[in-house]
Amino acid sequence: MTASTPEKIQARHLSRNAYLYVRQSTLRQVFENTESTQRQYALRERAVSLGWRIDQVFVIDSDLGQSGACAVDREGFQRLVTEVSMGKAGIVMGLEVSRLARNSSDWHRLLEICALTDTLLLDGDGVYDPAHFNDRLVLGLKGTMSEAELHVLRSRLRGGILNKARRGELEIRFPIGFVYDGEGRVSLDPDQRIQESIREFFLTFRRTASAMATVKAFRRAGLKFPRRIYRGPHKGDVQWDELDHSRALWILHHPLHRSILLWTHTHAQASRRPSGIADFTRGRMDRPHS
User: Fold this and answer.
1) C-alpha span between 186 and 231 (Å, rounded)
2) Secretion signal: which residues (predicted)?
3) What does the domain layout of the chain look like in residue ranges?
């Protein structure tokens, strides 16, 4: 903290509240990067040391596990902006700029509001007054660097995925009904109950030509639809729930299911077989991409 920092904090700032914004980008970071979370919460003591009473320090941590790329889905960030806009905040605290925002438009909007309402900003390096040109310049550069860092991270991850795909080693998560066999090839799920359920789904859809009608038919018949769990202690298990409209649309629009639907429809017309999803009707999976 610089020697000039205390001069920026005036009685008018101390008469208002201090808001600490805590965020981690993913739930995995929340559970694994605990040191970062603890450092963010520790800023409460920093506010007290600067003159705020502990009852004036409000922690906003409802965005834990949310990406900072956009403010739309961040309820906590929206609340923070609202409190600052209403003139309730004397200072806004965050361990670093990337905790507050990784999007330049969101960051500069917060800076503008802070400048208009005479609200200070604090991070791990010191206290800033957005109404002052030099502080505004430094904060703007920090925001730009944070957004650029997000772009670099995304590019690095995407490059790794593409490189693995070029080698033919990229495994993707398949929709329910498809699994990798022992040789790494795509095959039908060996669970006959899952096959029967998906077979009934597509046959019903071919008959009704409507996702909603398919859902209603399943509910009238009391049929459940499988869903594989990919996270948590029950990872890999299959859960049976009522089929809903959004799930029916997701299945129908999934590229793998759509390709099989088109392939089998073409072959069914050519051989004058009864319409339906031929792969599941026969109980096996051919190669629809060949």
Assistant:
1) 22
2) none
3) 5-160, 178-282
